[in-house]
Specification:
The protein has about 170 residues and is of the alpha+beta class. It has 5 helices and 5 strands; from the N terminus they run E-H-H-H-H-E-E-E-E-H.
Length: about 170
């Protein structure tokens, strides 16, 4: 399984469809809200949501949706990243509800070599998240600093730090 890409492996226009999807449970949403101290009743109180919102049910907190999609993209995009430089934009296009399943895909918009260090470059990508019905729910653009092959080779190759296994005896 691939875990991220070097600068040379990115092609402008390439699309990576992240797999697998993730079904969002009420537990996931509530735990994320509590961990991040977002206690808004829209996310935590079913009675409140039923009586006071247009959806009549809890809406999954947007920062969790973003986090899931970002995480889904790591094996394809930023698994070898040196740094996440910028989230340029983030839009929640449609709500996500408990029981929805999210799928993500990322398009490489641009890439350029670092001006200060010749062993890395910047990749500019757009990630979109869809629910099980194909409805776009979230889209964000970000810039990621990724290593060139020379950087990886100087630091131990594709899996630096992984121990060499030896058989007993």
């Amino acid at each position: 399984m691939q875990f991220g890409r070097s600068y040379e492996e990115f092609e402008v226009g390439a699309t990576y469809k992240h797999w697998p999807g993730k079904t969002v449970t009420e537990y996931d949403d509530h735990l994320f809200c509590l961990l991040t101290m977002n206690h808004h009743p829209l996310h935590l109180d079913a009675s409140y949501a039923e009586q006071t919102t247009q959806f009549a049910k809890n809406v999954v907190v947007g920062s969790y949706i973003y986090s899931l999609l970002l995480g889904m993209s790591v094996p394809d995009v930023s698994g070898k990243a040196i740094a996440n430089l910028e989230v340029e934009s983030l839009k929640h296009v449609a709500p996500t509800f408990h029981g929805d399943t999210l799928y993500g895909e990322t398009v490489v918009l641009d890439k350029w070599e670092s001006k200060s260090k010749d062993d890395r470059g910047v990749v500019y990508v757009e990630t979109k998240g869809y629910n099980q019905d194909g409805t776009l729910v979230c889209v964000f653009r970000r810039k990621v600093m990724v290593p060139k092959q020379s950087y990886l080779q100087a630091r131990g190759g594709e899996q630096p730090g992984r121990p060499v296994l030896t058989e007993p005896g």
